[in-house]
Design goal:
heterodimer, A: 72% helix, B: 2 domains, six-stranded mixed sheet, 13 strands
Chain lengths: 267, 324
C-alpha cells in the first residue's frame, strides 16, 4: 500500500506546481459556467415550468460541475502512460514489483485531485457570492449533502476505471488517438457534461441513466442539487458501485491479457 | 540460478510494399511475416557468474533479457530463475532482479535523482537502514554523491547512466541484467561503470548478465560468453577458450629502414607503406621468435610489436564463421 501512497504523493506534488495553469483554468471555467447559465436563462425566460430542473437547481449543477471539472474532464489523459506504451519505456515499469493497473489508477487519481484542489475553492466561493438565482447554495438537506460526498468519490473512481480501458487499449491499437477522440465525445455527451441528463428526451432517459457514463458526474451533481432524493439517491449510488465493480474487473482482466501479449517496442 | 530450456519466440510483423496502391490493398488484406526471434534457446547460469551475451543487432539478445525479466512471454519453452517462472510470477520475480536498459531511462525526468531513488525504495519496500547503507555504498562507488540532487534531465549521459545503474541496485538484487550499459559513454565513464560492475559482483555475489557490442566490456568483465545469432545460441564458452580457438594468427607491426620486405610462403604482408608494415603470421607454421629473427635479418628494424587477435576481431570472425 505504501508504494501506491508514494506514487500518489510524487504525482500530487508535481500537479500542485502548475499555479499559472490553475489561474487560467479558473478564469476559463468562470467564463464557461457563466455562459452556460446565461444561455439557459434565455430559455427559461419562456416559462420555467417547461424545463425539468428549476433554475436554482441548474445553477448549482453548473457551478459544481465547473468547480470539480478536473475530476471529471473526459479529455484529460496522462500522456506519460501512452508514451510509455508507444516508446517501450513501459519495460521499466514492468520490471518493478507493482501492479501496473493499480499504479496507473493511483497516478490518475493524484493528477486529477491535485488539479481539482488548486481550482475548486475560488470557484465555489465566488459562485456562492453571486446574486440569486445564479448563485451556488448548500444542499437542501443533510442526507443529500452526505450522499453527495460519497457519490462524487464513486463517480470519480468510475471515470478513472473507464479511462483505464482507454489506456489499456493502446497496447492493441498502437496509436490511441482515434479511440481517445471517440471516447472523449461519448463520455462528455452521455455523462451530462454538455447538457445535464434531465434535459434529454424522456424516452432516451432510462437508457442514458443505465449507462456507466451517468454514474460519473451526473449522479453526484443531481444529488447535490436535490433533483433526486430519498430512495432514488440510494438506487443511483448502488448503480455507481455496480459500474465501478464491472469496470474495475474488466480493466484488470484486459490488462492481464494485454501484458501477456505485450511486445515492448524498440531495442 | 538461471535456467532456460528450449525457449521460442516468434514475432508477427505486418508487411507491405511501398506505394499508394499497395497501401490501399493493405487496408483489405494484410500480409504478415513471422520472425523467429528466438529458436530453441537453452542455457544455464550459476549464482555469482558474470556472463557476456553477445551477437549482432537483431540476434535476439534483448528478447532474451526481456523474457528473463518477465516482460515478454515466450511462445513455449521453460525458464526458471531462482525457482520461479518470470512471466507467470512477475511481481515476486522482479523483486530479485535489477535491470538496466541502456537505451531507456527509469529516472523521473523532472525531479532530482534522489527523489526517484526514494520512490524506488518505497516500491521495493527497502528498510530504512539497508537503503541508507546501499545508497552510501553506491554513491561512493559510482561517484554520484554530487549529482543525485540534480534533476535527471540536466545530467550528462555518463552521469545519468551511473544513476540508472545505482537505481537498479538499490534493492540489492540477486541478479543484474545489463542491456548495453555502456552505449554512448566516453572512455572514462565506461571504465568507471566496468569497475563498478566488477566490484558489485565480487562484494555482493550478484549474478551479472551483460549484453553489449563493446568487446572491451566483455574483455574487462566476463569470463563466460554466450554468442547468439538469428535467434539461436551458437556458442557457450569462456573468453580464453574462444581466443585460443582463433589465436593461431598474430599481427606483427614493424617500422624499418632499408629494402622493402618481401612476402614469403610463411609471412603475409597486409600493408607496407614508407617503412611501416603490418605482417600476418600463422604461428602454426612460423613461431613468433622465428618471425622476428627473420624480419630483423632482412631489414633494419626501428620498432616492432606483436599483437594477437583483439576481442573485436575475434567476434567479427565468429560472426563470419557462423554466417550471422
Amino acid at each position: 500500500m505504501r508504494k501506491y501512497i508514494s506514487f500518489f504523493k510524487i504525482r500530487f506534488i508535481e500537479g500542485m506546481q502548475y499555479r499559472a495553469a490553475a489561474w487560467a483554468g479558473i478564469a476559463t471555467q468562470f467564463a464557461w459556467g457563466g455562459m452556460n447559465l446565461l444561455m439557459f436563462w434565455a430559455f427559461y425566460q419562456n416559462g420555467e415550468n417547461s424545463f425539468p430542473m428549476t433554475f436554482p437547481e441548474l445553477s448549482n449543477y453548473i457551478w459544481m460541475q465547473q468547480a470539480f471539472l478536473a475530476m471529471f474532464m473526459a479529455w484529460f489523459f496522462d500522456n506519460e502512460i501512452f508514451d510509455g506504451i508507444m516508446s517501450g519505456n513501459i519495460a521499466y515499469e514492468l520490471c518493478r514489483p507493482i501492479d501496473l493497473y493499480n499504479m496507473w489508477f493511483v497516478k490518475n487519481m493524484a493528477i486529477r485531485l491535485s488539479r481539482m484542489i488548486l481550482r475548486c475553492m475560488p470557484i465555489l466561493i465566488v459562485a456562492a457570492l453571486l446574486p440569486y438565482p445564479f448563485n451556488l447554495t448548500l444542499p437542501s438537506n443533510t442526507l443529500n449533502g452526505v450522499s453527495f460526498l460519497v457519490s462524487i468519490f464513486l463517480g470519480f473512481l468510475v471515470l478513472i476505471a473507464f479511462s483505464m480501458l482507454i489506456y489499456i487499449s493502446a497496447f492493441y491499437t498502437l496509436s490511441p488517438k482515434g479511440i481517445r477522440i471517440l471516447s472523449t465525445s461519448v463520455i462528455e455527451f452521455f455523462a451530462g457534461a454538455v447538457i445535464p441528463l434531465p434535459f434529454f428526451p424522456e424516452t432516451l432517459q432510462p437508457i442514458m441513466y443505465a449507462l456507466p457514463f451517468a454514474s460519473m458526474q451526473n449522479t453526484p451533481f443531481l444529488i447535490y442539487t436535490g433533483y433526486i432524493t430519498g430512495f432514488e439517491v440510494m438506487r443511483s449510488m448502488l448503480l455507481q458501485v455496480t459500474w465501478l465493480i464491472i469496470l474495475l474487473t474488466s480493466g484488470k482482466l484486459l490488462m492481464k491479457h494485454a501484458l501477456k501479449k505485450v511486445v515492448v517496442q524498440g531495442g | 540460478m538461471i535456467e532456460l530450456k528450449n525457449v521460442n519466440k516468434t514475432f508477427k510483423i505486418a508487411k507491405r510494399n511501398a506505394g499508394f496502391s499497395e497501401a490501399v490493398k493493405a487496408l483489405f488484406k494484410r500480409e504478415y511475416t513471422y520472425v523467429n526471434a528466438l529458436q530453441d534457446v537453452s542455457f544455464a547460469i550459476n549464482d555469482g557468474e558474470m556472463v557476456g551475451y553477445i551477437g549482432p543487432n537483431g540476434a535476439g539478445k534483448s528478447s532474451t533479457i526481456k523474457i528473463m525479466s518477465g516482460i515478454l512471454t515466450p511462445d513455449n519453452g521453460e525458464c526458471i530463475i531462482n525457482g520461479r517462472t518470470p512471466w507467470k510470477d512477475r511481481i515476486a520475480h522482479v523483486k530479485d532482479i535489477g535491470v538496466v536498459f541502456g537505451q531507456r531511462s527509469q529516472l523521473w525526468w523532472d525531479v532530482p535523482v534522489v527523489d526517484s531513488f526514494e520512490l524506488i525504495r518505497d516500491i521495493y519496500k527497502i528498510e530504512a537502514y539497508s537503503y541508507k547503507k546501499m545508497l552510501n555504498e553506491l554513491t561512493e562507488l559510482l561517484d554520484i554523491g554530487e549529482i543525485i540532487r540534480t534533476p535527471a534531465r540536466q545530467l550528462s549521459l555518463g552521469q545519468r547512466m551511473r544513476c540508472e545503474i545505482a537505481a537498479s541496485l538499490l534493492h540489492n538484487p540477486k541478479i543484474l541484467f545489463l542491456d548495453e550499459p555502456t552505449i554512448g559513454l566516453d572512455a572514462v565513464s565506461k571504465i568507471a561503470v566496468r569497475d563498478f560492475i566488477k566490484t558489485i559482483n565480487r562484494e555482493h555475489g550478484t549474478t551479472v548478465i551483460l549484453t553489449t557490442h563493446d568487446m572491451q566490456d566483455i574483455e574487462a568483465l566476463t569470463e563466460r560468453i554466450l554468442l547468439i545469432g538469428k535467434g539461436r545460441i551458437l556458442l557457450d564458452g569462456t573468453l580464453s577458450e574462444l581466443k585460443k580457438r582463433n589465436s593461431a594468427y598474430k599481427t606483427v607491426t614493424v617500422d624499418y629502414v632499408g629494402k622493402k620486405l618481401e612476402e614469403t610462403d610463411k609471412i603475409i604482408i597486409k600493408k607496407d607503406l614508407d617503412g611501416h608494415a603490418e605482417i600476418l603470421i600463422d604461428t602454426a607454421v612460423l613461431s613468433v621468435s622465428e618471425a622476428i629473427s627473420y624480419i630483423s635479418s632482412e631489414v633494419d628494424v626501428k620498432d616492432i610489436s606483436v599483437m594477437g587477435e583483439t576481442a573485436e576481431e575475434m567476434v567479427v570472425s565468429l560472426y563470419k564463421e557462423f554466417k550471422i
